[in-house]
Amino acid sequence: MRIRVEVKNEILGDSLFWEGDESKIEEIRNLPAKMTARKVAKDGKTRILGMWVVSEVK
Hints:
four-stranded antiparallel sheet
């Protein structure tokens, strides 16, 4: 499964932060984004945590 981590923020703007295979989630250096990516990898549901939007790439 491929995971996408995006930033959605009025000040910083919207951008792609990280995208990759679930086996490489440990590459993510931001702790909230990494923890959210782990949850998405387990069940495939899109999650939002603050400015982080983590989803499965279909």
